[in-house]
Design a protein that fits this description.
By secondary structure, this protein is mostly helical. The chain has helices spanning 2-20, 22-25, 30-70, 73-98, 108-119, 128-136, 147-190, 196-254. The chain has 2 domains: 2-70, no CATH class; 73-254, no CATH class.
Amino acid sequence: MMTKVSNRKYLGLLFVLLILMLPMTASAGVGDIIQWLTTITDTLKGEIGQVLGAIQKVGSAKQSLQQQVAWPLTAINQAKSSVLQVRAQYSSLAGQIHAIEVSSASLANPKQLESLVRGGQTPGLGQLQPAFLKVYGAVPSTTEASATDRNLMDVDDAMAMGSLKTTVMSDQASEQMLGVADSLERQTAATAPGAAPLLTAQAQVANLQGQAFLQRMLAAELRQEAARLAHDNALVKRSAEANRDLRNHMRQILGRP
């Protein structure tokens, strides 16, 4: 590349000198023209040639520094070979693990609910509520349960539905993140040395997205745990109210004449 640039500079300078001497060549003979061309050639080979040679050496040194120190070609080829080897070793295993059938429900309604929960498709979230009610039932009416029990059952169902929906969205996001990781692996195996910072930036963004999804799942787990603690506490409160009512009834019975 540097040789081509040097040749272009050489020819360009020769062309400029010839243009400057055109008025003089009109009255000059063939011998004078040959002498001028020889002088120009000697000048280009002398001082200007030394400068162009120095520029070419600097370019060669820069190219050598890039190929041997900054981005050593041997190390790059080894890294690409390692990436291809890892992909070949684990891609088939990951596919086999992903294809394992884990659904275990056998009845119609539980199978439908399990399929929606494990499907990892957010468009199916609208079908989750009816499927949930078919399996776990609706909240009893006011004539079938007390207000406290109905409140507990309703909030427990709401928290369970929220966690199930979050799980479905997280599964879908996980599939997308796996696709991004696979794309980065393929790019790494075929990318140019200068593209490494760009791939690193993409990987960092994907890592931040993964952390955000992980935090969302942790928040859902904490909400579910808080709801369970609140449910247990409500049962304790109801037991205390029942004991209080029992004591009042006992006082009324013992206080009768």
